[in-house]
Amino acid sequence: MKFQFKIIPSDSIVVVVPLVKKYMSKVSISEDLLIERFREMVTQNYECVGVYDTDQLVGVCGLWYATRHYSGQSVELDHVVIEDAYRNNGLGTQFVNWIQLYVKSKGCQAIELNAYIDKELAQKFWERDDYERLGYHYVKKI
């Protein structure tokens, strides 16, 4: 299969909401609130990459850009999702390789991400690609 990787235009960002919502395991958020948040996110240092099988969106990954004191210009991958039917065939690796080339062309020196503790397969995926586990990510609602 031939897949396309492309940046989703900010005015079309809501196309990612059903896919992201489908795979959210830790947080319960309404679709309306997700739409509102994605529309706000694209006004910040955020882009989203889509994986397309012909015209069907089968994967997404958010990109948050920042300069960090410990890694320089970096991108944080967010809500990396590939539909179940498309997993375990190398698509994830192709997707991450495309993202790496893309963000490097934009001047990024590092890629960061968070992985849920209970997502052991995801952790193994990232570690196979030389991502280093540095710590824990904490959240406190206020």
Domain tally: 1
Q: Give the spatial strand order of the biggest sheet.
A: 1-2-3-4-5
Terminal Cα span: 45 Å
Shape by Cα distribution: globular
CATH class membership = Alpha Beta
- Given the structure, what is the number of helices? 4
N-to-C series of helices and strands: EHHEEEHEH
Percent of residues in β-strands: 25-35%
CATH topology term: Aminopeptidase
How much is the radius of gyration in Å? 15 Å
Describe it.
- The chain is of the alpha+beta class and 142 residues long.
- The chain has one domain (4-128): Aminopeptidase, CATH 3.40.630.30.
- 29% of the residues lie in helices and 28% in strands.
- The chain has helices spanning 17-22, 31-41, 91-105, 120-128; strands at 4-7, 46-53, 56-68, 72-82, 110-113.
- A 5-stranded mixed β-sheet has the order 1-2-3-4-5, covered by helices on one side.
- It is globular and about 40 Å long.
- The model has no long low-confidence stretch (mean pLDDT 92).
Secondary structure elements and pairings:
Layout: E1 4-7, H1 17-22, H2 31-41, E2 46-53, E3 56-68, E4 72-82, H3 91-105, E5 110-113, H4 120-128
Parallel strand pairs: 4-5
Antiparallel strand pairs: 1-2, 2-3, 3-4
List keywords for this structure.
single chain; 142 residues; alpha+beta; Aminopeptidase; 5-stranded mixed beta sheet; 5 strands; 29% helix; 28% strand
